[in-house]
Design brief:
Helices cover 64% and strands 1% of the residues. The protein has a two-stranded antiparallel ribbon with strand order 1-2. A hairpin with a 5-residue loop joins strand 1 and strand 2. Helix 5 packs across helix 7, helix 10 crosses helix 13 and helix 11 packs antiparallel against helix 13. It is rod-shaped and about 100 Å long. It starts with a helix and ends in a 26-residue tail after the last helix.
Length: 282
């Protein structure tokens, strides 16, 4: 007797349109006909449909399913193992994306609690960059210092941010003046500027011992988005990020009593530095 397309659609959970498509492509063509000439699905057809739906659930394409079912000698186990490996890779990728999304939510929740208008008023050119903040959250997530910095940033009032940014602007002016005057990065003036930045981080965010300050400076030199947190692109000069990086290291050595590396080159303002093209970040 067999089953009509409507009956198969109802109990198999697929649309009539899908069954018609399978019929047109030859993937599943009903083998029986009614007395009036309508196609009807036999038990063997239903068994084949069950296989199709099984492979579809695993993510196989219709072409792949056609190839598997067309060859009686095909090793379905090999196909399944291949698919299992691909699914495992996809699961790992989605887990990484889920982690990034979770960190992005944390950044949004624990970041600066100001309205967009207040952000513009307080930060000016120093604007929020979610991609960098999220990467930093992932990179430093096991750091007590980073967690403390995020918590303190979230607790700052608008007036706190005004004072913080005014202090940062004064510091930035000192950095640019030392650089433009050709002061050596490991000279007293540049090291004092580096020390002022270290104390600024400690005062407003988290204790910043010399080793930690070195890591912060390494980010400034390596990532334009990080350097744009302290010097917006409109004020950057070629070589400035590298100059600050060396000044921080020289100051860290001064404070810890460690000797600087022998024959360390002085960073001059004529050096090229791709950081001048950095994107804005907060």
């Amino acid at each position: 007797m067999g089953y009509t397309v409507g009956q198969v659609s109802a109990f198999a959970g697929v649309t009539v349109r899908t069954l018609h498509h399978y019929d047109r492509t030859g993937l599943l063509s009903p083998g029986d006909r009614s007395r009036t000439g309508y196609r009807r699905y036999a038990d063997a057809d239903l068994a084949r449909l069950q296989q199709i739906l099984f492979y579809r659930e695993l993510g196989f394409s219709l072409d792949e399913i056609t190839a598997i079912l067309a060859d009686p000698q095909a090793n379905a186990l090999d196909h399944l193992r291949t698919r299992q490996r691909r699914l495992a890779e996809e699961i790992a990728r989605l887990q990484r994306l889920a982690e990034v999304a979770e960190r992005a939510v944390e950044v949004q929740q624990t970041g600066v609690s100001l309205t967009p208008e207040e952000r513009f008023e307080v930060f000016g050119e120093i604007v929020f960059d979610l991609s960098y903040a999220t990467e930093a959250q992932l990179k430093w997530r096991d750091s007590d210092g980073h967690r403390q910095a995020m918590a303190r940033a979230a607790a700052h009032t608008k007036e706190d941010w005004r004072r913080l940014m005014a202090e940062a602007a004064d510091w930035r002016a000192e950095l640019l003046a030392a650089f433009d005057d050709g002061e050596p990065a490991d000279g007293e003036r540049a090291m004092d500027v580096a020390e002022a930045h270290r104390l600024h981080v400690t005062r407003w965010f988290t204790p910043c011992p010399p080793d930690m300050h070195r890591r912060v400076a390494a980010d400034f030199a390596a990532d334009p988005r990080a350097f744009a947190l302290v010097v917006p692109p409109s004020q950057q000069r070629p070589g400035l990020a590298a100059y600050l990086h060396e000044a921080v290291h020289a100051n860290a050595s001064r404070r810890t009593g460690a000797l600087p590396a022998p024959n360390a080159p002085h960073v001059r303002k004529t050096h090229e530095d791709p950081d001048r093209h950095g994107r804005l970040a907060r």
